[in-house]
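Materials and Methods. Structural model of FAD-dependent oxidoreductase. The 463-residue sequence of FAD-dependent oxidoreductase from Streptomyces oryzae was retrieved and submitted for structure prediction as follows.
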Amino acid sequence: MAAAERMVVIGGDATGMSAAAQARRLKGPEELEIVAFERGSFSSYSACGIPYWVSGDVPERDSLIARSPEEHRSLGVDLRMRTEAVELDVAGQRVRVRDPEGTERWEGYDQLVLATGAVPVRPPLPGIDAEGVYGVQTLDDGQELLDSLERLVEPGGDSRRRAVVVGAGYIGVEMAEAFVKRGYEVTVLEKAEQPMSTLDPDMGKLVHEAMCSMDIETVLGAAVTEIRTDEQGRARAVVTEDAEYPADVVVLGLGVRPATALAREAGLPLGASGGLLTDLAMRVRGQENIWAGGDCVEVLNLVSGRPQHVPLGTHANKHGQIIGANIGGGYATFPGVVGTAVSKVCDLEIARTGLLEAQAAAVGLRFASVVIESTTRAGYYPGTQPIHVKMLAEHRSGRLLGVQIVGRENAGKRVDIAAVALHAGMTVEQMTALDLGYAPPFSPVWDPVLIAARKAAAAVRAG
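The predicted structure was written out as tokens:
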């Protein structure tokens, strides 16, 4: 009887464990041995849920865990926790790993899955590694932050607490909301001229105005130069070129970069963002038996035609399913993304899909751009909220290029209409005929997305 093939997975979260689980469904232990290494203390968890755990909206940490290490092992996956891959020998088909006791050894593989994720951007500033400065990317990071907040609460002490968030992207605004809900005074420092660089400036301005109305001090054009510490070495203030902001806790919301140091040192191909390059099957380019997915890879943007780093759990799980299917003897591909994302800060919902104006211009597209203001429900229905929709359409063809939405309750998920239209290659004229659900509690007679499509179609015809 032939020996079982050996599948080694580096990373025990979305991509890695989805790949392991899918491969195990297709091949039993007698055909495929599966060994996975996770350097952290948790497996298969929702990193996207961490801000809501910090805020208290999600009361229990374990609610974010989809499958524990014990559950994976019971399904035939040898998952080894707190074990880090430190070197990759492609020619020898082996990985050097370090276990919790510090012992290092080589592990051979027939099929290798790189699911190393991403790491928070941490610029080389004075004090950036001080106690009280946190990146929030893993469940371990979230636990460390919450443990720190518990230590800040001293019986009979000053109840005033100040949080400074550096960066006003997705994680920045979500963490700002988390600290507001915990009763902190919150300052967000953003070096750009508007928050949310994933939006065009005019839509980012709406987010800025809303954050200020929520008593979140949002300082724009603020380049951080230093994290100032006390005598014990704990962060006490964040310094910019123009001012100093007292802080009991500092959170870095500067985005993430692919965690591909291991791949880089092994000579595997990386794109402009530092993410691994793969083919449609999620196989690393130039390799027959090395696969990669999730936050450590670049993917094709179907609208621009260019590769892009898109660190989202939705894609990471799909990548894992595709990798597992291919290793398990099936067939699956990942065609690309249209760049859909949704978030919120307090009651303001923020969404986008497709291209921003700058992105469209960068790839040589000419386009019309329109913005409409409407309501989330019929104007006369109780509880209706404002919504702004921005839409980009290609000159002449009228092809939809992108949509951005900023609004209150029931605004954000409308972006999914546009995401489907982008995948289908629809024009804005075609979108105006979409048969969307209508009733006064859910939408005006003309849904805001359709109002924007009508205006965009008119702009294309006029142009």
